[in-house]
TrEMBL record:
InterPro entries: Globin-like_sf (IPR009050), Phycobilisome_asu/bsu (IPR012128), Phycobilisome_asu/bsu_sf (IPR038719). Keywords: Bile pigment, Chromophore. This is Phycobilisome protein. It comes from Merismopedia glauca CCAP 1448/3. One of its GO terms (biological process) is photosynthesis. CDD domains: PBP-like. One of its GO terms (cellular component) is phycobilisome.
């Protein structure tokens, strides 16, 4: 929404925006109650979601958080907390561009340099399953493209 509004303010500079150009505003405001609800649920449940994701990942691969430098679980938790917060904000504002440009590209570079690729891939296979338990189907449908973007960029 914020990126779209910024783009519209530039494109419609000096004129009135057309109804087609404003359509995204109508769609956003219609979905806002659902976005607010999902955002609040993610905010309240983030710690549980991360803990359950970690537990399920360890059940699949007990050494998922071990690399040549040792156990990087604390680093993973810190990074995933940040990614969940950014995804929740991107959901609230309907702004996947900001998520991608603001965080995912940077995290992708870090993940590759520390060889976290396998862990990132597994995280974004497991985490959507966990988040589905905390959100309504409609809320999850709004979040799902953002989780997919995380998985594509980081996995």
């Amino acid at each position: 929404m914020l990126t779209q509004l910024k783009r519209l303010s530039i494109e419609a500079d000096g004129r009135y925006a057309s109804p087609q150009e404003l359509q995204f505003c109508d769609e956003y405001f219609q979905s806002l109650p659902l976005r607010l609800s999902a955002y609040q649920k993610l905010k309240e449940s983030a710690d549980e979601i991360i803990a359950l994701t970690e537990l399920k990942m360890r059940a699949i691969d007990p050494k998922i958080f071990i690399n040549s430098t040792g156990d990087f679980t604390p680093t993973w938790k810190k990074d995933i907390e940040q990614l969940v917060r950014y995804a929740a904000a991107a959901l609230l504002f309907n702004d996947s561009d900001r998520l991608n440009e603001g965080l995912l590209i940077w995290h992708s570079t870090i993940a590759k340099s520390y060889k976290f690729d396998r862990t990132c891939k597994r995280t974004f296979q497991v985490m959507p399953e966990v988040m589905r338990e905390y959100l309504s189907p409609e809320e999850f449908d709004l979040l799902s493209p953002l989780l997919s973007l995380n998985g594509v960029v980081l996995g």
